[in-house]
Amino acid sequence: MGQTLSRSLPNARSYAANARSKGAMSTGDYGHTALVSLGHARHSSSTMPAGGVADDRRLVLVVEDDLSIGRLLQGLLEREGYRTIRVDNGEAGLAAIDRDRPDLVLLDVGLPRMDGFEVVRRIRADGRWQSLPVILLTARTRTEDLVTGLDAGADDFLTKPFQHPELLARIRSALRLRQALVRMQQANSAVAALANAVEAKDTMTERHCQRLANMAARLGSRAGLSVIELEVIAYGALLHDVGKIGIPEAILTKPGPLDEHEWKLMREHPIIGERICAPLGAAMAFLPIVRHHHERWDGRGYPDGLRAGGIPIGARIVGLVDAFDAMTHDRPYRIGRGVAGALEEVQGEAGRQFDPDLAPLFIAEIQGGTDLDLELPPSALLTAV
Ligand SMILES: [Fe+2]
Q1: Structural domains of the chain sorted by starting position, each given as residue range(s) with its CATH number in brackets
Q2: Model pTM greater than 0.90?
């Protein structure tokens, strides 16, 4: 594969690097008694007090029955700009999560009645708190305790006595991870909505995008791409034709070959698609797939006439799979052909329309069936569409 399968996909993780925690001011002391009397509901990481000024400092819930350690933690966190609430048992902790919606939970393991492991299990059992960061605090140092905590669903584990800089670094890290997850979920929703929109517009290609996402991920896997790259390819495959939203319906559904003017308009769809996806923060990694999925290995494709290895690998994969899918399914102007005939055409176009290294991998993948031990990413996205 070597040079041909050069990795030209940007790293999908890079956007997460910009995530950062906020906060610069101190806050009041919310002890256990004060917490019980707190009546306000909190619906996000920012609050709107009576004065009308939003407070977007992160809220950390400290669940710790040792008063001196609890106060120490609160003081440390508040000096770092977090707001804090402290409770001294697991039941009160669960109630505080429900009522005050903290951004992160510091949870002592050795709590009375319900221990920290059980508390974190209950947090994870509630669908609303799947991504709430939970850091366990304990004096226990046995590996079994660590494993039990992580199995229960904790994000991290800190043993007492802990170093303050380490605690603060773990908190920042857990908050960054959560922010990245939230952004990913938002991006997934936007991608799913856009993919649905394009399929609603072009009913002849219904399910086409999902088939494509699966096939493209299978081919990418056979080509040795990483899970992150496969995820980017699956996103790109789902949205490759989103630009058709901007193409007149009469052209998309014309029951015959397009004339020159109509083709000119149709060839705009990769550029329109790129414009539509550009505002999606997480979309940056798959924009090249949307723009270049109609480029050809020999340079005679569109919109930019890129050739060979100059075409991003994800676009080469989606372009091949897209062409195969079009060959094997009916279109308004022609009846789909059989798989064997389509594979012959893929073989014949290797080095012309298609990447000559990808074509045989694709043929082997189709002929060999789905014998790859592959969990197709992004599974959540694919089921959401
Ligand atoms: Fe297309």
Answers
A1: 19-181 (3.40.50.2300), 202-384 (1.10.3210.10)
A2: no
Ion ligand 1: residues, CB within 5 A, are 241
CA of 360 to the centre of ligand 1 (A): 22
Nearest one of 138, 135, 118 to 69, comparing CA atoms: 138
What is the CA(287)–ligand 1 centre distance, in A?
A: 13
Whole-number Å distance, alpha carbon 263 to ligand 1 midpoint, is 12
List per-block mean pLDDT (blocks of 10 residues) for the chain, which spans 385 residues: 34 28 29 27 37 71 94 94 96 96 94 93 88 86 77 83 86 79 67 70 62 84 84 84 82 83 90 83 78 96 95 96 84 67 92 96 78 39 34
How far, in Å, from the CA of 200 to the mean position of ligand 1?
16
Q: How far is CA 339 from CA 2, 344, 353, 360, 369, in A?
A: 29, 9, 18, 15, 12
Helix spans in 51-125 (H): 67-79, 90-100, 116-125
Distance 294 CA to ligand 1 centre (A): 6
